[in-house]
Amino acid sequence: VQLQASGGGLVQPGGSLRLSCAVSGRLSDYYGIGWFRQAPGKEREGVSCISMSDGSTRYRDSVEGRFTISRDNSQSTLWLQMYSLKPEDTAVYYCTAGRSPGRVDYWGQGTQVTVSS
Predict the structure, then answer these.
(1) Which of 5, 15, 34, 49 could link 111 by a cystine bridge, Cβ 3.0 to 4.6 Å?
(2) How far apart are CA 13 and CA 36, in angstroms?
């Protein structure tokens, strides 16, 4: 299983970025797919996820209303559209996949997002 994340970069506060994750195999092979992030000196935290069983989405409170998670089953691709970025969004972002509820079985290599003026 491979998850290849891309789309990170340097952006000014208030700017936008769109992260992509190419997932090997079919998205329907997994129970949930999503994004985590880890900022320097901090623990890794969940950002957003999609349930492949019913399409429901979840967001951590700090990104609710600013980030949108989506996927394309035919392309086996996951996206994270990020708007109104803040310096505290600076982190390495990882795409993930799990085969059962609450589990993360596979991690991508991470893509760096830096929000700074």
Answers:
(1) 5
(2) 20
Whole-number CA gyration radius for the chain: 13
Q: Give the residue carrying structure tokens 């760096």.
A: 112
For the stretch 7-41, pLDDT in tens is 999 999 999 999 999 999 899 899 999 999 999 99
Residue 62: other Cβ atoms inside 10 A: 13
Do 36 and 97 meet the contact criterion of CB atoms below 8 Å apart? no
- Which amino acid is it at 44? R
Q: Cα torsion at 29, 31, 34, 37 (round to 10°)? A: -110
pLDDT per residue over 63-115, tens digit each? Answer: 999 999 999 999 999 999 999 999 999 999 999 999 998 899 999 999 999 99
| Closest by CA position to 18, among listed 88, 68, 87 | 68
CB-count exposure of residue 67 (10 Å: 0-12, 13-18, 19+): buried
- Rounded Cα distance between 58 and 27, Å, is 17
